[in-house]
């Protein structure tokens, strides 16, 4: 009986996550209805809260897949409650990605759940655990872009449409960055089980610096331009224009003041 109760409590959705969902819903409603006196503030809170929700789901997907692959320790660590405060590095997984969204409008990958890989057998299972997180971002991006490629935006207020476009941009960038086969990122985790022991051993010391290496490359204008050209091409194929993502980001940065171009956008 005690064991069953413990397992149930380990999988109970955290009030912290419920609170973040509530903020997402309320600010999304305020953005849609124009209830907020300052629409930029509502967009900021809506996109930030929704972004944190996606980060929680990303890490939950890793943990849940690991659970079904043999790592039963994830429950005791609190990873199945969707509580971001239970992550191994809450700063890296929640605070830092939000700061990067505010600064540069890019979905920063975060790594936060510690999987006991020794409990898991089979290379396919290891690969699937790594892939589960960014696949969640892909699914989130599909949900965000669905109203655009389904032409279901008639009557939708511009502020909400722009906010949704910017949120889709974050999900696409997060998925693309996470799938890069760079040590320390999920993309490398997908292919790592298939590499030889010697290769894995040689690459392992570079894993903590993989993300820093990626962002150092993105500071190069040529690399940055190619990266965002790819992002824009993906979004355009899903019905989102660069004007919509631009205006979404401008609304999100409400402290910069109103943008007349976006206010006049159809």
TrEMBL record:
Predominant subcellular localization, coarse grouping: membrane
Cofactor(s) in the UniProt record: Zn(2+)
Bilayer-crossing regions: 12-32, 41-61, 90-115, 127-150, 162-185, 206-228
Compartments, record wording: Cell membrane
Membrane protein topology class: Multi-pass membrane protein
Keywords of the record: Cell membrane, Hydrolase, Membrane, Metal-binding, Metalloprotease, Protease, Transmembrane, Transmembrane helix, Zinc
Any one GO molecular function term: peptidase activity
Similarity section: Belongs to the peptidase M50B family.
Protein name, entry field: Site-2 protease family protein
Organism: Streptomyces levis
Origin organism lineage: Bacteria, Bacillati, Actinomycetota, Actinomycetes, Kitasatosporales
